[in-house]
Amino acid sequence: MIRTAHWLGYAGLIPFIGLTLGMSLHPLTTVAFTTYSAVILSFLGGIHWGVALSRPEWSTPSRLCLCMLPSLLGWLALLLPMPATLIVLIGSYLSWWLWDRTQLDQPDYRRLRMHLTAVAVLCHLVWLAT
């Protein structure tokens, strides 16, 4: 896997970690955290959308519809009250990670996703616990 992808993936954790560490510093921190989380969740669906469009055997209506699920779940989560927002986001990240493992077989990508998902979910759990 391209080294830049690793760096950018790990850099994408900075808002999760930074906003979690500063959760009590500003009233908009919660909105920033949950919105960023929903955006990243959408990005994960977009990865599968891109793969589906590049592989003819994956370009089925059902697979393309499934690729939209993270975006819709992220949007739905933002409409819910806390802590339901965090619970839906945690469940979505874990479910999509499990789906990734059954669909994309690149070991580097799997390892990267495991690390990124673990940190993102841990940050969500910290928010949920407070």
UniProtKB/TrEMBL annotation:
Membrane-spanning residues: 7-25, 31-51, 72-99, 111-129
Keywords carried by this UniProt record: Membrane, Transmembrane, Transmembrane helix
UniProt key word Transmembrane helix: yes
Keyword Transmembrane set for record: yes
Domain of life: Bacteria
InterPro entries (alphabetical): DUF3429
Protein name: DUF3429 domain-containing protein
Organism: Marinobacterium weihaiense
Lineage of source species: Bacteria, Pseudomonadati, Pseudomonadota, Gammaproteobacteria, Oceanospirillales
